[in-house]
Amino acid sequence: MLxxxxxxxxxxxxxxxxxMLIDPNSxxxxxxxSVMGRQTSLANGVLKLTxxxxxxxxxxxxxxxxxxxxxxxxxxxxxxxxxxxxxxxYVTRPLGDEMNMELYNSMIELQATPKYxxxxxxxxxxxA
Length: 128
Known about the structure:
CATH superfamily: Nucleic acid-binding proteins
Structural class: mainly beta
Number of strands: 6
Largest sheet: 5 strands, mixed, barrel
Strand content: 25-35%
Helix content: 10-25%
Number of domains: 1
CATH class: Mainly Beta
Strand order of the largest sheet: 2-3-4-6-5
Number of helices: 2
């Protein structure tokens, strides 16, 4: 059983793209996050998503996981510590077969701008 971080506000999960998860020691390591993307494959306990910034995020799923029937999904899961772009999947939400991932990625990049961070993040995620 994975230990859920206790420093995160329950129900609040930062939205990230693949680039934000490249550094295995990023501020998101060991945190629960939300990642949206196109489902590209499911095999051997791994669901792969292509995010709006064209990165591939690996989602480790339970053996009985059933893939959503839509092209795009939101994944909520725990970012694995010390591993690049890998998430232990907790929940998926179907988003349908049409989504403007470039527009969504623009919003993700906007939230990383210090001026707008308070609108998107709880206080402990805001960079000093």
